[in-house]
Design goal:
Blueprint lengths: L1 E9 L4 H16 L4 E8 L6 E8 L2 H9 L1 H11 L2 E9 L4
Antiparallel strand pairs: 1-3, 1-4, 2-3
Helix pairs in contact: 1-3
């Protein structure tokens, strides 16, 4: 299993639009084969910061996700609303 943690700080005037699009991406991604979990989180310390935690079966599932119609349509729109972002790919230790 591969875990992806994507953090984004969103422009304050774009937060509601960002949430709407991110939830659309979340719902579509959860239906993909190979998706174990996909959840949008909001920081309790900074309401403009969001973290998506994704769990995927393998790298092929991630490749298919990155090539999906919903990903290629929504992610550029989300990127235009971000002040900053960081993505990490993780594996479970042990």
């Amino acid at each position: 299993m591969i875990v992806i943690m994507a953090r984004a700080e969103v422009m304050p005037d774009k937060v509601e639009e960002y949430i709407c699009l991110a939830k659309e991406l979340e719902c579509a991604s959860r239906r993909e084969e190979g998706c174990i979990a996909y959840t949008l989180h909001r920081s309790m310390d900074n309401p403009n910061v969001f973290v998506v935690i994704e769990q995927w079966k393998d790298s092929q599932a991630i490749e298919a996700h990155n090539a999906s119609a919903h990903f290629t349509r929504i992610v550029p729109q989300l990127g235009a609303m971000r002040l900053s972002s960081a993505v990490e790919h993780l594996t479970i230790v042990g």
